[in-house]
Amino acid sequence: MDEEAGPTMVGDEHSDPHLMSILGATKRSTLGNNFCEYYVNDAPRVVLDKLESLGYRVVSMTGVGQTLVWCLHRE
C-alpha cells in the first residue's frame, strides 16, 4: 500500500510560531508568491498524530485537485 509522503504544508505566515516549532516546521516562500508557508518533512499522518497529542481533532477533510486539506479544532 502506498502512503502519502511529506513535505506537508502545516501553516501560513500568520500561524502560531510556538506550534510550528513543536511540529518542527520551517518557513519558506515559493518563487512568485508574496507570502510564506510552514512545511515539515513528515507525512500527513505523522503531523495529524502530533496534533492529536496536542488536543486537536479532525473536523473535516476534502480533496482539492491533488491536495488533501484537513480542518482541525482544539477544545
TrEMBL record:
<protein>
    <recommendedName>
        <fullName>GTP cyclohydrolase 1 feedback regulatory protein</fullName>
    </recommendedName>
</protein>
<dbReference type="Pfam" id="PF06399">
    <property type="entry name" value="GFRP"/>
</dbReference>
<keyword id="KW-0963">Cytoplasm</keyword>
<dbReference type="InterPro" id="IPR009112">
    <property type="entry name" value="GTP_CycHdrlase_I_reg"/>
</dbReference>
<keyword id="KW-0539">Nucleus</keyword>
<dbReference type="GO" id="GO:0044549">
    <property type="term" value="F:GTP cyclohydrolase binding"/>
</dbReference>
<dbReference type="InterPro" id="IPR036717">
    <property type="entry name" value="GFRP_sf"/>
</dbReference>
<dbReference type="GO" id="GO:0031965">
    <property type="term" value="C:nuclear membrane"/>
</dbReference>
<keyword id="KW-0472">Membrane</keyword>
<comment type="similarity">
    <text>Belongs to the GFRP family.</text>
</comment>
<dbReference type="GO" id="GO:0009890">
    <property type="term" value="P:negative regulation of biosynthetic process"/>
</dbReference>
<dbReference type="GO" id="GO:0005829">
    <property type="term" value="C:cytosol"/>
</dbReference>
